[in-house]
Amino acid sequence: MDKLHIIGGRPLHGRIVIGGAKNAALPLMCAALLTREKVTLDNVPYLADITTMAKLLMQHGAALSLQDNPPPLGSAPHYSRRLTLEATHIASITAPYDLVRTMRASVLVLGPLLAREGRAKVSLPGGCAIGTRPIDLHLMAMEALGARITLEEGYVLAEAPAGGLKGGDIHFEKVSVGATENALMAACLASGTTCIRNAAREPEIGDLTALLTAMGARIEGAGTDTLIIHGVTSLAGAQHRVIADRIETGSYLAALAMTGGEIELEGARPDTLGAVIEAMDHIGVKMVEEEGILRVTRRAGALTPRDIITEPYPGFPTDMQAQLMTILTQAEGDSAISETIFENRFMHVPELTRMGARISVSGHTATVHGRTPLKGAPVMATDLRASVSLVIAALGAEGETTISRIYHLDRGYERLEEKLAACGAEIKRVR
Ligand code: EPZ
Fold first, then answer.
1. Is the entire prediction scored with pTM above 0.90?
2. Which of 85, 113, 84, 117 is nearest to 100 (CA)?
């Protein structure tokens, strides 16, 4: 299995192109099941999860064409990977366990299949490293649209009424990105009007709403926690450019905070980074936006401690929690980090501790004692965002770090080591 070798202590200097958002591209791909016509997506990132989703959609009957090998770095300021999907017919309404268990986002075919075919058989995703990851809110939303849900041998069987899904009232008692996306996609083809209350407001949902609207859906309230969808009888094909990845952007902000230097992030969308920008500014990262380029430097002196509570958007994103914890080891003073979204998202703590960090965990709160110099060590990636936090730690550590199980990283970061090496980091992948 691949590993990353990193020698820390080098400031970053250079330009990094931010790719399309994984967590936008995945639901956008599923939306293609809602129409027989061609859906074209630009700026699709080169990630393992995209390949997994492509396999899943192909076994449902979608024809896909995907540019395969990324052009050399820097060859095109905005090289854009184009993915076309065409689900003229649905060959299977079953999302099999072997695919769903490797990627939880597979559950996002539930709403489209139910809306398009009136039936869906989707494997329960099972838990993952960061939590049990139930899908009860997804199922509640489908039932609110008239579906009958039964569970059988680890699969969800969903059946729409004879006349198809009917618009209804969906009120999420907890904010869920995926459940909001499934409800939104299913409601587009339900007869009548659907109201989704306490909807998630992440920018990726705004991106999905933009594609669905371009396909002919009638959606009101984009960006708010109340979405109104007036169902239509069919949707057409459309073309859409995937929104920039705000978590990839935030991860490079954290890398700079660790190493110092100056980087330019091209294609970033600072307007989708609300609470992250505010936290980074407080901690000591300077960001100036000029003509679509985000110029990033670090203020002189030590980093400033910051208490963090993860919350649904526009609060501080849970997907940036591990990265912030890592740089806060370098702040002069203590920071309290509370993880309110997932029940087990501190698995980077023991690995950071191996590198010299002093972090105490009590329940959902981790207290980071700073400033503690980090030392390189062999460490292990456990989940996607924990992986990148170990890369960030290694970039600022004294000596060499080896990170194993970096297949986690490849699920969500496109060519990370190439982008960092191009900015002067001593980082290489060894097979
Ligand atoms: C999406 O996951 C993202 N994944 C996650 O990113 C992200 O961390 C998460 O939203 C929160 O922002 C994709 O978009 C592909 P949720 P999702 O439903 O939709 C509970 C990454 O690193 N819940 O908003 O699965 C759930 O257990 C990944 O890129 C229920 O209880 O997250 C969690 O505690 C990790 N019942 C909370 O809600 C349900 O039916 C929020 O989960 C659904 C969720």
1. yes
2. 113
